Amino acid sequence: MKYLYILFFLGFSFEILAQEPEEYYRPPDSKQKTRVVNLPNLKGTPVRWYAGMSAGYMRNFNILDNTIDGLLISRNYGNVAWGANAGYNFGDKWAVEVGYIRQDVQLWLEGFLAEGIPFRVIRGKKYDIFPIRYRRNIWTIDKDIRSASVYLSGGVLLNASSPDRLLNTYRVSNRVLNPSMPRDTLIGRVATSRRGTVAFELSLELQGRISDFLTLSAYASTNFGMSRGINSEISLTRDGQSLGSALHYTSGFSYAFGLIARYEYARGVKYRSKVE
Description:
Radius of gyration: 38 Å
Helix content: under 10%
CATH topology: Porin
Oligomer: single chain
Shape: elongated
């Protein structure tokens, strides 16, 4: 009997050892497809934040209300303007941006004194301008990769350097070598006015993408605002006798063209529901 118990326990032990261990964890199959969750009621739109630099040529228009018998001539002044900007682009559809522009605004006066002696006077100042713009994509040239677009933009230009202040006074006279030659004296008083504090901008821009994060644009713009942001009161005398006076001032109108490079430093996706 004792031997029968021993044989029974040995057989039961071999049966337990022969069983396979239960699987508590099964490693994932590399060929198993990942389940993709689709949200058909949400639409994603790419958004971008960018910063950039601009450089171009800007020309300001001046007005002279009296030439004093053709002795005075007003010229329009042009120079290089540069700036910086930062903004937010929504799906290459529209963008808003702020920036800074350093602009040189001058009154350019030429003329002739007695005996046809020419002179030239250029007076003005550099403006610190802060633009606020809204840009709208009006034409995507390549709709597949959206590599080139045309933007129409409008904005407000805030001039932080145009108080009512005297800038300078100049005096021009001819050198009298012959006592019989009349002596002409031109005196000008140049000042800034608060009328140049605000202006408006309208711009057309061709933007091309040259890399994943960099765009380059060619632009043409026009600015218009109140005149006499810079003005000069002029008087001309001959041998102490007045020949007349004139007012020389900025018209408030200018145009510019140049290049803008923008670098997209951050990106994201904005979702909105398709269900009304």
